[in-house]
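2024-03-11 09:14:02 DEBUG pipeline.ingest accepted 1 chain
2024-03-11 09:14:02 DEBUG pipeline.ingest length=64
2024-03-11 09:14:03 DEBUG pipeline.predict start
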Amino acid sequence: MNALKRRLLTKWFVEWLDSEKDTELLDMTKLMIERRTLQVRGPIKVIGFRKNLLTLNKNETEQY
């Protein structure tokens, strides 16, 4: 029963998204989904930084 409920709600939500024109309501919905995602998953931990090799000079890329 739970799987059926999820499928129906997802289908109705996608149909609603396709038909909705109110940008404020869409923004509010996005914010609610992001908050719920944060509650379920928790904060994303940044472990380190990565250099973008496309922006480095040729001399710097030779070191790698």
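2024-03-11 09:14:41 DEBUG pipeline.report The mean pLDDT is 84.
2024-03-11 09:14:41 DEBUG pipeline.predict end
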